[in-house]
Amino acid sequence: MPFKQVKRPVILGIVGDSAAGKTTVASGIAEILGPDKVVTLCTDDYHKLDRAQRAETGVSALNPDANHLDIVEQHVHLLREGRSVLKPVYDHDTGTFAPAEYVEPREYIIVEGLLGYATRAMRDAYDVKVYLEPDEDLRIRWKTQRDCVRRGYSSDEVSAVLERRKQDRIDHIEPQRTFADMVVGFYPPEGNSKETGAHLNVRHTLRPTLPHPDLSPILEVGVKKGFRLELARDVDGKPVDVLEITGEIDDKRAKTMEDLLWNLIPEAQHLRENVGRFIDNHAQQSTSHPLALSQLLITYHMVKAALGHHAV
């Protein structure tokens, strides 16, 4: 049987607030699927205003009115149909717009950004929808580190930006959580609130909008030593499965769990790559087992969608 059964591109949405980890999660999934088979579309490229204009007008990038969401809709659907688009480019490092980029569809498309689920038309285009909600104090530390090192902000400027965006976060970012198939949240372990990297725990809220994998073989290996799965109530009161992965998993046990996850997607064995990589707060490349396992779980759904198991 050929690996990919669905003829059109399979589309993954990754939505979350600024510095929630969207690019890190997306890049790891692209590595698993094969970078030559994946194109990533960032909805931030569709800002209407550059950084200076937003500062002048007081309109934040989190506000739908500050983005060409109608063009995002059009481009996502064109790519889904196998057609190319001329995509705008927003340079986060300078806060200005760069020349447009010609984007051709590939087997997999990852759409990541602040407002990917803001309209019904965009939501209807995805096969898999993920929402990232790290612990808020952790996200603030991630954002401060990134914006000061890479984007030329001072810590006071980052704090001011966060304060100005508070209401937009509540009004425009958080409501998108309800549309996700999976909600993924990294958080520090108990007793180590300063942890920001490899030893973070992660919580997966798995909604019944997708047929999630049978994790019993993994849980048999990892119970009390890395994994916990329980039936719980989501913030809206609906029943969900909640999977917890601890950041204290040792290398050997994590490798065993990764192998078990790969066995759930035997069609993709040839796509194995090193995953779970991220840039730590010392600007060094590091590896997180919870991140790797999260990327694999999301990739499982991409592979199954490509096989036509739950494509929309």
Architecture overview:
The chain is of the alpha/beta class. The chain is built from nine helices and twelve strands. The strands form three sheets. Strands 2-5-1-6-7-8-10-9 form an eight-stranded mixed sheet, with helices on both faces. A two-stranded antiparallel ribbon has the order 3-4. Strands 11-12 form a two-stranded antiparallel sheet. Strand 11 and strand 12 form a beta hairpin. The longest helix has 19 residues. It starts with 9 loop residues before the first strand and ends in a 6-residue tail after the last helix. The model has no long low-confidence stretch (mean pLDDT 89).
Concise synopsis of the structure shown:
By secondary structure, the protein is of the alpha/beta class. It has nine helices and twelve strands. The protein has helices spanning 22-33, 51-57, 69-80, 120-123, 136-150, 155-173, 216-222, 251-264, 289-306; strands spanning 10-16, 38-42, 85-91, 96-103, 108-113, 128-132, 182-187, 201-206, 227-233, 239-245, 277-279, 285-287.
